[in-house]
Amino acid sequence: NAGRTKVHRHTAHLAMAPGSSEHLVETTLQAARDELVRGLGGLLGRPVPVRDAPGGRIPAGAVVAGTPASSPVIRRSVPAQDLAPLGDDGYLLRSVRGATVIAGNTDLAVLYGTFAFLRRLQTRQAITPLDVSSAPRIRRRYLNYWETERLYAGNNATGTGGLNGENGAIFDFTATGASAALNLPVILDRYLVAARAMASVGINGITINNVNANSFYLTAAAIKQEAALADALRPYGIRLAVSVNYAAPTDARFAPDTLTREQLDPYSAQFRDWWARRARQLQAAIPDFIGFTVKANSEGQPGPQDLGYDHRDGANALAAAVAPLGMRIFWRTFVYNAEVDRDRLKRPYLEFGPLDGKFAENVFIQTKNGPLDYQAREPVHPLFARMEHTDQAIELQITQEYTGQNTMLCYLGPLWEEVLKADTYATDEHGRLLPRRRVGDIVEGTTRDRPDSAIIGVANLGNATNLTGHHFAQANFFAFGRLAWDWTAESGRIAEDWVRMTWGHHPDVVRTIVAMMAGSREAVVNYQTPLGVAHQFRSSDHYGPAPGERLSRDDWSPVYYNQADTAGLGYDRSPTGSGFTAQYFPVLAARYGDIDRVPEELLMWFHHVPWDRRLRSGRIFWDELVSRYDLGVGYVTWMRHAWDSLATRLDARRFAEVKAKLAAHETDAAGWRDTCVGYWKQFSGREVPADGPLSV
Ligand code: GCU
């Protein structure tokens, strides 16, 4: 029934990027039109006729896309009151007299609706009769792209090797130290492929550089090139931001417009004016520029504390500088100054908690899902419930820094679903439970009637053909976008959509791959950090295990997190330990603080557990611990066999690529188990139980 396609467009002008075969589109409706033509043609296996600006009778089976402003057909066939609740980004798909309309209030909503319609076709959902509408729960659905030192999805940014070879940085620019270069304005095909991938799941902004920010991105030369990127991404509804260094004004690259260290005082006019000048330059080149992401006084980055001020002073200074331009500041809470408390987990709240409600209107504080650093499982960050008078963006990591990088198959949907649906049990001043205090409720801002809201994914885009390296890393990109749009969605359903769109519809394929994905994250938890023992990673690459590693900083050392001794294992954060549990509201504080009540999967986040303590399985802690490692490795072995069973149902190249990854995955999972169990054994003084094998 989707045999004919009609969409409106404002312009017929197509430009080719130098050295590029992808079309640069100029308008969002043109992008929607291209997607329909390409998507329907591909799905139906034949070209679809296109009519621009159709008038008169619409033939049955046609697809009409547009806004009431751009299309008389939409104006006639979709009552205004049906579009009103959809806001700027929401779309409506509806069967109207034998045709299908894709409508929204804005061109971007039409593009989102187009992708949603194609997804329905591709996942084989009914398209007649159709009457669905969908609007995002969170307004800003951004990526933070880190062209980092380790580029966790694969290669490192300079392309000089790294862990897994094939996936270097997506943007062809490097900014290391003072030497920095952008190869823009050449728009490579893959930027547009990425833009389409982002738009297809509703991502509408991207911070293009590492949080450990190089000030190059603020120079006039860089801004010119960033503007070219912004122009290319704009039709897809993707706006740009950059990460900045608080001390950028002292950087010699801005000479003669530089400040002294003393002038970094957040209340000085020079400091604010300097940032206002940069912001004006950016806005002149990129009219819809979002603003700045800031990592300050964190891991050696400069910040307002260097001059005796706090995070609010710093954030509000930058916010004041950019507010007249309508820009935002995303100020990260990933701080762990060792002078604040011995327990690293307590530090962000101790620094930020007292500042709740004191941030400027155009500031988001940006907080990772958990209080440590993207482990495969963490308790929720206590800040979400405690900073309710502040706009809070949640920062999730799509790229798999601690969850197997580009080697391990780890579907992160269940992790994010767990976090977003986690109840904080926040109470009012009388101790009464407040309604709707799941993390997702707080982030979407409805609990306090805030129109603005943000969710951030640290991106895994690379230069591989599939943008992510490991084929299954794409599922994480996809799931992030879908949950950013609607955090109440089920990660299992999202996985099924992805499998159908990526691997096919044969029942064996769908059932097997969805099942593999469903347990893959729990498997990583089990063979890396079971029962809540955190951060046992080798410091060099954050990939393999190093439970005995002792580094220059306590809080970078696996031994600090595991606290292994002959009595037991785990970090005591209960009221008799570090007292971290008190940062949660009473229900969670009581639950986590009591070794008899804490969920076993979080056990060692909160308690130093005696080796012979009896757990719910009936086994003593030591035996249970070892069995969890085995369980995790066993799951990977099962995934390898399950994948093999699909050999005849999948295309040979991708089948072989994933097969090779699974083999490496299994070896490395077993390595985690053997290294960790071997190390713990020295403290427990116990034997490995006879009922579990200890190597693959
Ligand atoms: C992790 C990561 C760093 C990153 C930091 C952050 O620690 O290893 O590369 O800079 O997170 O979130 O700021």
TrEMBL record:
<keyword id="KW-0732">Signal</keyword>
<keyword id="KW-0326">Glycosidase</keyword>
<keyword id="KW-0858">Xylan degradation</keyword>
<protein>
    <recommendedName>
        <fullName>Xylan alpha-1,2-glucuronidase</fullName>
        <ecNumber>3.2.1.131</ecNumber>
    </recommendedName>
</protein>
<dbReference type="GO" id="GO:0016787">
    <property type="term" value="F:hydrolase activity"/>
</dbReference>
<comment type="similarity">
    <text>Belongs to the glycosyl hydrolase 67 family.</text>
</comment>
<feature type="domain" description="Alpha glucuronidase N-terminal">
    <location>
        <begin position="20"/>
        <end position="116"/>
    </location>
</feature>
<keyword id="KW-0378">Hydrolase</keyword>
<feature type="domain" description="Glycosyl hydrolase family 67 C-terminal">
    <location>
        <begin position="468"/>
        <end position="690"/>
    </location>
</feature>
<feature type="domain" description="Glycosyl hydrolase family 67 catalytic">
    <location>
        <begin position="121"/>
        <end position="466"/>
    </location>
</feature>
<keyword id="KW-0624">Polysaccharide degradation</keyword>
<comment type="subunit">
    <text>Homodimer.</text>
</comment>
<keyword id="KW-0119">Carbohydrate metabolism</keyword>
